[in-house]
């Protein structure tokens, strides 16, 4: 730790002073929340110097190119602990607080979990920011300061109930309001062209619009031990004119109210849909709002630093679009360059298409963003015109290349069937299109985006996802982190490839024992959490079998719980059967309007209730549904897991990142050959994972040619049939026969569109049950299991987001590292 700047005594004084000036209290009188605030401000003071130094270093190094990571979601998780880790000050601060009679863990628990994201895509953005700062790369994250983030999940009577996440209630100490950089964003109205009287140029004018003031809040992103502090800039919306009397006088009362409401609504709440598009106007407003503000700020900064020659933009700036949600950046940049900077279409296009790059995170059809043209053109008339022109020019090109082939247009045009297809726009306009795991990228190239790939193969590339070991090992699993450091040094914190040095230790009995003892301690920590939150006693000696992720049919939590029901039937029928005790742990939020997902949560909780209270099975199975799964409890869950459930229908999970967090923490994967599981197995070896089920080619073959009928399986496997029938016979519904009707129908009812059992749960059931048997067998063999667990940790080097970021830099962004030096 930087000795002088983080002097213990100075830090203690700072905390005391903060309690005094913020609350007019002595430490002993302050609440835990007030102490959290005081400690956070003391930490922020330390960060600010590095923040200034970093921005100064970027400014001095004018050749420094900057990446703008545009994302509707940043699932940051708590900042205090993470900042301390990256400042390499965690231990000292913990000690300092100890000396004051304060407990850092309890203080960390006071921080709300900033949850400005849904799941994988949002958390990936947060990991990327951590890696960019740690690797000394100039970067901005740009997003929205939602007033309410991802909802809080409560379980009442087994059902999910959503509660608002008022994360700003107590004030958030790690943000900085920057009103001096506010920008205006306009919606609606109409477009008129006129001749500029001075230049004689055709000029576009937007009239009769509504507008809001976008005000940025900056959050520091601390790199690990390198004095770099980058910025996450999230935009708040305010009414342009405050509710003034004169506008009332002018008869603009309604307009004033409207603008106030528009501003309030835009940033009110994060849409809690994961992998599902809903064509809501407000969502489009959110997208345009933060993109327009971010691009205006970006251009202003560029001109301040590099002057007015915008042709240099692609040398200094690259815009990475996190899925299609921010792809309105393409026409907005065109608009700003043409209408505000007076560039020609050709020059603006040259710049835009060299600056923007797009990442695809899904092949799920229901996740593709397609906006109805009438909605779109009313809200964003000028942007729509620009899209029309981009489309017109592209269609011309396609016609020239494939004369008379309308199939090509049907697949590739931006405007089709009364809709604006955002993915197509991003692919056509950007210089890079990447998938997020090898398999996913291959499916994009050969299946989903085949026509695009054939026309412009040079744009396509793969960037397998990664995760930050700073949060998910150093912070989340301190026991294992310290043990690894004691064994191989602390180089792994910034160079995860070094973790491979653990490999020889899998043959060292002492090392294996220590590794498993740490796992056991982490299981005790989780068991305590479960006791406190669920009132359920779980045995830390049982196998902790964990599936935590968003609830979605393709992720197949239903397959998991059906298998639990099947095991329970077996144990009831054959009490003498040998069975290794298991704790099945679930955690998942369902999108608020997603009925089948919500029914699955209810089913899991009902199965838990029945099984956990059945004394006749001697606690052989426990089922736990962890309420409000989020970043902060995730860290503890990964650390305690024995088995990592990654059981999506092959081809559906673009990558997965939870799989990597389990692996890092020594939990073997029980999974399908999907997403990054494929690469995990490549690294750790088939012997150290439990792979089962259909391969992606088989799934895609059925999808393209039909021929799957779940009924055949249902009637040929009586044990599976019994389990499915139990959905309808009231076993898990206090006699209610209708509670799980929708789930039952989703599996068997041939009326279902486009077919029953869309996600091949019946087809994969037996292979899954067999894989589960292999898990049990392996776990019984302590020697073998400890080797497997350790091998998973030792082989996870590839899955750091540091590696992912270096690949983005090398192939797409072309950034240069900037050193930041600070006087100590
Ligand atoms: C779109 C339109 C309107 C409202 C909401 C949305 C929306 C929001 C979130 C659509 C999709 C998402 C989130 C997608 C997501 O998290 N995808 C995951 O991305 C991870 C990181 O690449 C992958 O590891 C996962 O496989 C992928 O499912």
Automatic annotation (TrEMBL):
Look up the record and report any one GO term of the cellular component aspect. cytoplasm
N6-(pyridoxal phosphate)lysine, modified sites: 661
The protein's annotated catalytic reaction(s) are: [(1->4)-alpha-D-glucosyl](n) + phosphate = [(1->4)-alpha-D-glucosyl](n-1) + alpha-D-glucose 1-phosphate
The protein's required cofactors: pyridoxal 5'-phosphate
EC numbers for this chain: 2.4.1.1
- Give the keywords, sorted: Allosteric enzyme, Carbohydrate metabolism, Glycosyltransferase, Pyridoxal phosphate, Transferase
Q: From what superkingdom does this record's organism come?
A: Bacteria
GO:BP terms for this protein? glycogen catabolic process
**Keyword Glycosyltransferase among UniProt keywords:** yes
Q: Name one GO molecular function term.
A: glycogen phosphorylase activity
Q: What broad class of enzyme is this? A: transferase
- Keyword presence, Transferase: yes
**What is the role of this chain?**
Phosphorylase is an important allosteric enzyme in carbohydrate metabolism. Enzymes from different sources differ in their regulatory mechanisms and in their natural substrates. However, all known phosphorylases share catalytic and structural properties.
Record-stated family: Belongs to the glycogen phosphorylase family.
Protein name (Swiss-Prot/TrEMBL):
Alpha-1,4 glucan phosphorylase
Biological classification of the source: Bacteria, Bacillati, Bacillota, Clostridia, Lachnospirales
């Amino acid at each position: 730790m930087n000795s002088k700047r983080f002097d213990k005594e100075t830090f203690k004084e700072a905390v005391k002073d903060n309690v005094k000036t913020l609350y007019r209290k002595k430490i002993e009188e302050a609440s835990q929340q007030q102490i959290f605030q005081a400690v956070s401000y003391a930490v922020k003071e330390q960060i600010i110097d590095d923040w200034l130094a970093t921005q100064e270093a970027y400014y001095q190094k004018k050749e420094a190119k900057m990446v703008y990571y545009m994302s509707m979601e940043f699932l940051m998780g708590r900042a205090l602990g993470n900042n301390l880790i990256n400042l390499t000050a965690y231990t000292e601060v913990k000690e300092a607080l100890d000396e004051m009679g304060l407990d850092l863990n309890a203080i960390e628990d006071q921080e709300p979990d900033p949850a400005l994201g849904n799941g994988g895509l949002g958390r990936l953005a947060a990991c990327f920011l951590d890696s960019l700062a740690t690797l000394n790369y100039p970067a901005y994250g740009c997003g929205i300061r939602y007033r309410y983030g991802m909802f809080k999940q409560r379980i009442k009577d087994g059902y999910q109930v959503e509660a608002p996440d008022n994360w700003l209630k107590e004030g958030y100490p790690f943000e900085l309001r920057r009103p001096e950089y506010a920008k205006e964003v306009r919606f609606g109205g109409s477009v008129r062209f006129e001749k500029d009287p001075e230049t004689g140029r055709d000029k576009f004018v937007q009239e009769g619009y509504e507008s809001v003031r976008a005000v940025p809040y900056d959050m520091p992103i601390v790199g690990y031990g390198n004095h770099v502090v980058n910025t996450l800039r999230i935009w708040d919306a305010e009414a342009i004119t405050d509710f003034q009397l004169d506008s009332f006088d002018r008869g603009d009362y309604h307009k004033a109210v409207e603008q106030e409401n528009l501003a309030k609504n835009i940033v009110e709440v994060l849409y809690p849909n994961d992998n599902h598009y809903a064509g809501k106007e407000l969502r489009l407003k959110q997208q345009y709002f933060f993109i327009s503000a971010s691009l205006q700020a970006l251009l202003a900064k560029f001109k301040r630093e590099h002057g007015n020659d915008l042709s240099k933009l692609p040398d200094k700036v690259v815009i990475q679009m996190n899925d299609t949600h921010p792809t309105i950046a393409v026409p907005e940049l065109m608009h700003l360059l043409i209408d505000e900077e007076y560039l020609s279409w050709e020059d603006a296009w040259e710049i835009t298409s060299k600056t923007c790059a797009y990442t695809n995170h899904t092949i799920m059809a229901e996740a593709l963003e397609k906006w109805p043209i009438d909605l779109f053109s009313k809200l964003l008339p000028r942007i729509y015109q620009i899209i029309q022109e981009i489309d017109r020019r592209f269609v011309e090109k396609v016609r020239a290349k494939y004369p008379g082939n309308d199939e090509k247009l049907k697949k590739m045009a931006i405007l089709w069937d009364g809709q604006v297809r955002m993915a197509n726009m991003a692919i056509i306009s950007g210089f890079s299109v990447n998938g997020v795991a090898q398999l996913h990228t291959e499916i994009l190239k050969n299946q989903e985006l085949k026509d695009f790939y054939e026309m412009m193969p040079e744009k396509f590339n793969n960037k397998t996802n990664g995760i930050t070991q700073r949060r998910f090992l150093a912070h989340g699993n301190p026991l294992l982190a310290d043990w690894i450091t004691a064994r191989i040094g602390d180089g792994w914190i910034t160079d995860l490839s070094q973790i491979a040095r653990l490999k020889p230790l899998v043959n060292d009995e002492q090392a294996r024992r220590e590794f498993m003892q740490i796992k056991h301690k982490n299981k005790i920590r989780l068991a305590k959490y479960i006791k406190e939150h669920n009132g359920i006693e779980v045995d830390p000696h049982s196998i902790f079998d964990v599936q935590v992720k968003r609830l979605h049919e393709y992720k197949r939590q239903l397959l998991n719980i059906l298998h639990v029901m099947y095991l329970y039937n077996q144990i009831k029928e054959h009490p003498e059967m040998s069975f290794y005790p298991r704790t099945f742990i679930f955690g998942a939020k369902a999108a608020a309007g997603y009925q089948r997902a919500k029914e699955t949560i209810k089913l899991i909780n009902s199965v838990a209730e029945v099984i956990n209270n059945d004394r006749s099975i001697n606690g052989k199975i426990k089922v736990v549904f962890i309420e409000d799964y989020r970043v902060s409890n995730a860290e503890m869950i990964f650390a305690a897991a024995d088995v990592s459930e990654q059981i999506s229908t092959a081809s559906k999970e673009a990558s997965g990142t939870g799989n990597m967090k389990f692996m890092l923490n020594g939990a073997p994967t029980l999974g399908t050959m999907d997403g990054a599981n494929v690469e995990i197995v490549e690294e750790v070896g088939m012997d150290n994972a439990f792979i089962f089920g259909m391969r992606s080619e088989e799934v895609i073959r059925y999808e393209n040619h039909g021929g799957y009928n779940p009924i055949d399986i249902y009637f040929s496997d009586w044990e599976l049939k019994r389990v499915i029938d139990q959905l309808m016979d009231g076993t898990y519904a206090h006699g209610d026969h209708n509670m799980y009707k929708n789930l039952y129908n989703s599996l068997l009812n041939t009326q279902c569109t486009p077919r029953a059992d869309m996600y091949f749960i019946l087809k994969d059931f037996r292979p899954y049950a067999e894989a589960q048997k292999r898990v049990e067998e392996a776990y019984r063999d302590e020697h073998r299991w400890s080797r497997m667990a350790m091998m998973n940790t030792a082989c996870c080097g590839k899955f750091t987001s540091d590696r992912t970021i270096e690949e983005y830099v090398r192939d797409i962004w072309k950034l240069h590292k900037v050193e930041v030096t600070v006087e100590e």
